[in-house]
Amino acid sequence: MDSAICSRGTRVALVTGATSGIGAAFVHALADRGWDLVLVARDRERLGRVAAELEARGRAVEVLPADLSDRGDTERVAARLRDPARPVDLLVNNAGFGVRAPLTAADTAPHDRAIEVMGRVVLVLAGAAGRAMRERGHGAIVNVSSTAGFVTMGSYSAVKAFVTVLSEGLANELRGSGVTVTALCPGWVRTEFHTRAGIRSSGVPDLLWLDARRVVETALRDVRRGRVLSVPDLRYRSLIWLTRHLPRRTVRWISRRISSSRDSSRDGGLTH
Ligand SMILES: NC(=O)c1ccc[n+]([C@@H]2O[C@H](COP(=O)([O-])OP(=O)(O)OC[C@H]3O[C@@H](n4cnc5c(N)ncnc54)[C@H](OP(=O)(O)O)[C@@H]3O)[C@@H](O)[C@H]2O)c1
Asked: Candidates 99, 193, 204: which one to mutate for ligand 1, based on the most atoms within 8 Å of Cβ?
C-alpha cells in the first residue's frame, strides 16, 4: 500500500466481509498486487471458496470465520490483528448491511446490530490494528463508510457518519506514526447489499451506480496517497460537497425526498 509497507516487503491484509461485494473486490485487487490475505465473514463454505480462488493464484490465505455481531468472535479477530508473530499491514473494516427499520420501531434489534457490526466493531478492530501498527511504525486502515453518512437517512446514516468521524479522529491520533487511516465513502455500489436487506433498488438511476472493482481501485490509490477521505467518483464528490455547503435543513429535505421515494416505490430503497 503506502511506500513504507511496500519497502518492508510484508504484505498481509485482513478484510472483514471478504466474501461478497466491496470486500471481495478488495481481496481480489490485493491478491493481484501480491498481498497475502486473512478473510473474515460468517459463511464458512463461501470463505473456503474465496480462499481456494486466491490460493490458486499463489496467495497465502488464512480463513477466520466470525460473526461480528458476537463480541467473542470480534475479540478473536482483534486478537489476530494484535498478534506480533503474524503482523497485519492493512486492515479493511468492511463488513456491513443495509438497515430499513424506522427509528421509531418498537423493536430496536436492527439498529442494535447495525451499531454493533458497523460501529463498535469498526472502533474495536481499528483500535487493535492501530496500536499494533503504530508499534511497528507502519500500516494502513480502511474503514468502509458511505456517502449515506453525509445525509440523514435513519440509523444507517448515523452509523456511517460515526465511521467517517471516527476515521478522521484516528487518523489524527496516528498522524506521524507511519500508520494511515482512510474512510471510504462510496455511493450506490452493485453488490448483494440491497437484496440482502430486502431493498429492491431498480429505482436508482443507472447514472448513480458504481462498480465495486472501480470503487476499490480508487480506495487503494487514495490509501497509497495517505488520504483520510476517499470518495470514489466525481458524481459523489460533488454530492458530498453540496451536503457540506447547503444549509442542514436543505440536506434534511433532500434526505426526506430520497426516503419517501424509497418508501413509496414498490421497488423499495435508496439506502446505500
Ligand atoms: N453496496 C452499496 O451500495 C454500499 C454503499 C456504501 C457503503 N457500503 C458499505 O460497504 C460495506 C460492504 O457492503 P457490500 O455492499 O459489499 O455488501 P455485501 O455484498 O452484502 O457484502 C457484505 C459482506 O459482509 C459480511 N457480513 C455481513 N454481516 C456480517 C457479520 N455479522 N459478521 C461478519 N461478516 C458479516 C458478509 O458475509 P457473511 O454473510 O458470510 O457474513 C459479506 O461478505 C458495508 O459496510 C456497507 O455498509 C455499501
From this structure: 193
* Whether 236 is catalytic: no
Does residue 223 contact residue 196 with C-beta atoms inside 8 Å? no
pTM over 0.85: yes
Q: Over the stretch 162-212, which tens digit does the pLDDT of each residue have?
A: 999 999 999 999 999 999 999 999 999 999 999 999 876 878 888 899 999
Q: Please answer whether residues 98 and 269 qualify as being in contact, where contact means their C-beta atoms are separated by less than 8 angstroms.
A: yes
Is residue 271 a part of any domain in this protein? no
Q: What residues make up the domain containing 121?
A: 3-264
Q: Is 205 exposed, middle or buried (0-12, 13-18, 19+ CB in 10 A)?
A: exposed
Phi then psi for residue 226, to 5 deg, are 75, 25
Instruction: For the chain, state the CA radius of gyration.
Output: 18
